[in-house]
Write a structure and sequence with these properties.
Length: 102
């Protein structure tokens, strides 16, 4: 007997893999992201890479780069898999107190 997933061209292993890729979003009742969508972790990484490039070209000072190095805190507070385009001011305003206490 052929399982329904296999009739649809999907093996149970493929279905499990797709579930594991979206599990965190599904359990948090978020729309699962598409692979090409930018998440907070990648956004912070791109920002810090660009800041390092600017430091290398002497467009900013080392102190400015140090100020930008709060990337890990941003990722921790907002969540590394949160879609960057889903961020609103409510995401950051609720974490201001936690940031200032550190």
């Amino acid at each position: 007997m052929v399982q329904e997933d296999q009739r649809a061209g999907q093996t149970p292993q493929v279905a499990l893999g797709k579930y594991c890729e979206t599990r965190d979003d599904l359990q948090a009742v978020r729309q699962p992201r598409q692979p090409e969508e930018l998440v907070v972790r990648e956004l912070v990484h791109r920002f810090l890479t660009r800041a390092q490039d600017r430091l290398d070209r002497m467009e900013i000072t080392a102190k400015t780069l140090d100020d930008h190095m709060m990337g890990d805190l941003i990722i921790e507070l907002l969540g590394k898999t949160v879609l960057a385009n889903s961020l609103r001011s409510c995401h950051t305003s609720s974490h201001t107190g936690a940031t200032l206490r550190r």
